[in-house]
Specification:
The chain has one domain (3-332): NADP-dependent oxidoreductase domain (TIM Barrel, Alpha-Beta Barrel). It has an 8-stranded parallel β-barrel with strand order 3-4-5-6-7-8-9-10, surrounded by 6 helices. With 335 residues, the chain is an alpha/beta fold. The protein has helices spanning 37-49, 65-74, 102-116, 135-147, 161-173, 197-204, 234-237, 239-245, 248-264, 268-277, 292-299, 308-318, 326-332, and strands at 3-5, 12-14, 16-19, 54-56, 82-87, 121-126, 151-157, 179-185, 207-211, 282-287. The N and C termini lie far apart (43 Å). It has 13 helices and 10 strands.
């Protein structure tokens, strides 16, 4: 398993990261699509055997049960693994149990440490920007957690380009620990991050962690044109998401991915993951495997090589309408 530097930090992480959103019994938005605990533990064991040493979770996943399961499983493995978690979204009905205020960040971190049964997390991420809280308050809370030894590095997720730039400027001017990574959605069906976030990460030297690399399973090859999603799949449960993604553009792209998968003797999922792993900005791609079969299929992507021509074909087949001012600039550069 290849290891890559997380941005400009000294931390090295496996190029594939195991995401645990589907672990732990859920009564919330993941209800009905999580792994049984025994299967989740098998997935964790196999991921570690395959060389993955980077685990990503969040306090909100399965209402805290994902962190609890991880805490029970970790044991003596803790010192050998890179552990990342997040805070931001509601963990209760009180206004103090959500957001990126100093009060909530510190309390959420303490709660996560308790559920994870550890004294520290390697990467503590704010799960989404919070326009109601000044960025300096958020950064100072993270800075204090780092100085206290409860957090090693700070990161953000689901940020806009302007908010990320504001955060980087503030940490520099106020001598605060900066974000070292950005976790964002990026895949062949969703390339919006390339408008601002990927260029910003490149400019600031931030590590990129990719979530939903298979577009909620759409790039896995298990969905078919003019057929309903398989029973038990996420798209079968998330009907609104299926209506948005069930388009001619999607199926044309999937045909292109399947053709390249045939060329290289892989699966559509392997090609979609390899496309991301070939991007120089990417530090780690997060796999969300609900069972061993999904994990085994996805692990093969770490060794899959795509040619420049195949990368270019995938780029072209998946290129979105960038919109203004990106189309305007592209049309006129170079002068």
């Amino acid at each position: 398993m290849e290891h890559r530097r997380l941005g400009k930090s000294g931390l090295k992480v496996s190029s594939l990261c195991l995401g645990t959103m589907t672990f732990g019994d859920s009564t919330g938005f993941m209800k009905g699509v999580t792994s049984p605990d025994l299967e989740a533990r098998k997935v964790l064991d196999r991921a570690i055997d395959a060389g993955i040493d980077f685990l990503d979770t969040a306090n909100m996943y399965s209402e805290g049960n994902s962190e609890k399961l991880l805490g029970e499983w970790l044991g003596t493995r803790r010192k050998d693994l890179i552990l990342a978690t997040k805070c931001r979204f509601p963990m209760g009905p009180s206004p103090h149990e959500q957001g990126l205020s100093r009060r909530h960040i510190i309390q959420a971190c303490e709660d996560s440490l308790r559920r994870l049964r550890t004294d520290w997390v390697d990467l503590y991420q704010v799960h989404m920007q919070d326009s109601e809280v000044e960025i300096e308050e958020t950064l100072r809370a993270l800075d204090d957690l780092i100085r206290d030894g409860k957090v090693r590095y700070g990161g953000c997720s689901n940020y806009t380009g302007y908010r990320l730039t504001e955060a980087m400027w503030t940490s520099d001017k106020r001598d605060l620990h900066r974000f070292e990574s950005v976790q964002l959605q990026w895949n062949l069906l969703e390339r919006g991050a390339e408008r601002e976030m990927i260029p910003a990460c490149r400019a600031f030297g931030l590590g990129v962690m990719v979530w939903s690399p298979l577009a909620r399973g759409m790039l896995s090859g298990k969905y078919r044109r003019d057929m309903q999603p398989p029973t038990g799949s996420r798209m079968a449960e998330w009907k609104d998401a299926w209506r948005r993604i069930n388009t001619d553009r999607t199926w044309a792209l999937l045909d292109s991915v399947a053709a390249i998968a045939k060329e290289v003797g892989s699966t559509p999922a392997g090609v979609a993951l390899a496309w991301l792993l070939h991007k120089s900005e990417v530090s780690s791609v997060i796999l969300g495997a609900r069972d061993l079969a999904q994990l085994e299929d996805n692990l093969k992507a770490a060794q899959l090589k795509l040619s420049p021509a195949q990368m270019q074909a995938l780029d072209k087949a998946s290129e979105p309408a960038w919109g203004y001012p990106y189309d305007f600039i592209a049309y006129r550069e170079p002068w």
